[in-house]
Each structure stands twice: as C-alpha cells, then as structure tokens.
Amino acid sequence: MSTLPEPLRAALELAATGVPVLPLRAGKAPFGNCPQCANNACGGRPNMKTAGPCRCPGVCHAWAAATTDPAVLTSPAWTAAWRRAVCVAYHPGAAGLTVVDLDDAAAVAWARETLPATHAVQTTRGEHWIYRGAMSSHNAVRSGVDIKSSMSYARWLGSGAGTMTALPDAVRALAVKGPSPARPAPRSVSVPARSGGGQCPHRTPIFLERGIAMAEQRIAQARSAIHATVYGTFLAVLSTHGRCGCLTDTHIARLFTAAQTKGETARHCMDAWHNASTTLGL
Questions:
Q1: Which of the chain's ends, N or C, has fewer CB atoms near its CB within 10 Å?
Q2: Is 64 helix (H, G, I), strand (E, B) or coil?
Q3: pTM, whole model, 2 decimals?
C-alpha cells in the first residue's frame, strides 16, 4: 500500500464508506474521455447527460466514472490517472447526498440565516454544506451558491464538522426557477376552434387532471435527456388537448414548474412549448 499515490489512498478510504469517487487533474477538472469514448462514440450524449458507465477501463465520463469498486480504482488505467491527480472528487447524488456549495463569505452568511444547519466542510473561499438525500444539480441558484448532487461531482475536502441532516425543502426550493423577467409568465395557448363546434370531449375534470398529472410525473422521473423529455411531454399534452381549449394558465404553469424543477429555464420552457405548438400546426 505504500506505493499507492496519496489521492488513491484517500479515495479507497472514502469508497469503503460507500461514496463513489474519481480523480481530478490540475484545475479541479475530471480526466478527459479516451479516444474510444470521445465524441460519444461509446453511446453517451452531449453534456454527459446519459454518459457511462461503459466498458472502457479508463477514467471516462467525469461524474459517471465515479465508483466504489477497489478493483477499478486500483486498475492500471486508473492508477496512472491517480498518479497525475491533484485531488479526489465524489459523486454526491450516487451516495444519496446533496452538497450546497457556498462559494464566498456572503453565501455562507446567507446559508446560516436561511438553511437548516448540517455537516459543513471548509473550502478555499467558503463552505460545503452536505445534506442526506439526493436531488438534481443546479449551478448559480443564487449568488455564490451551487447545488451538487445527481450528475455532478464535488471535491473531497475532508471530514468536516457537524451532524448531517436530511435534505430540507428549502434547498429543493432553490432549484425551482421563477419565470424570467424578460418574458411573460406562461399564458393559455391560443388555438383554432374545433371544426363542427360542439362540447369539448376533454373537459371531464378527471381525464384532464390525469393527463396533466402523468405529464408532471414523466418530467419528474426523467434521469437524462431532460430537454428532450420536456419537449416530448409538451408535444404529447398539446396533441391531446391543444385543439379543444381545455388547457388553462394553471395547467400550463404546472407543466412549466415541473420542467423548471428539473433545471430547465423559463425561456427553454417557452421555446419548447412554442416548438411543440408549431410542430402540431397550432
């Protein structure tokens, strides 16, 4: 064990507790994909939304490479990476954790006034507040504050201090983005009248409510390709309800809220809704 690189020693200790780890190179960046995995050749998608783990023996796909398997961590390809590594990172979401990254003193002061106390680790400029429970990751939820959990990595900075508490609603709420001030709030869709007139067949409250609830669930359960899932869900809702006038501001706002909870911006929601409407000729 004396010949192991120091970052690998720390990584093995952390992995033994059930926390998936990976090496970071200079600049606190993950190692790049190997030639066989470059340009998504192994089946990944842009921005690593569905990347890895693949059969590549190397350290590929950033957060998706994180593992607790000591055989992988000490394999020749990984050991070579550990010898070049400057620090250890981990995948919080895979360990059932969420890290609130407070990047400066002002952010730390805000957290102390706003969020429930939990396990805290000192960083170069601020603190990492770590909660039990996973959620989607979001950058810049407010000035100096990032959320790192699923599909993200955080540096391992030591054991820290304090008792880890359950992920509170106050942190989850940070991921819900309000409507962009540059654009109006979602409004009812203006669609042509049904030919032949008559009563709308979708005005049965149960039918419409079930459809909206299923759409919200589909978006909430998406683990990858969030943009495509949101667009596809909007398309499905509009194809069923877009020509009969069923949809109200409340229904559309529910769909937009579900999408924004998964990290979509208000602008993307508006664009996805418009594109779905155009595709259907509405």
A1: N
A2: helix
A3: 0.62
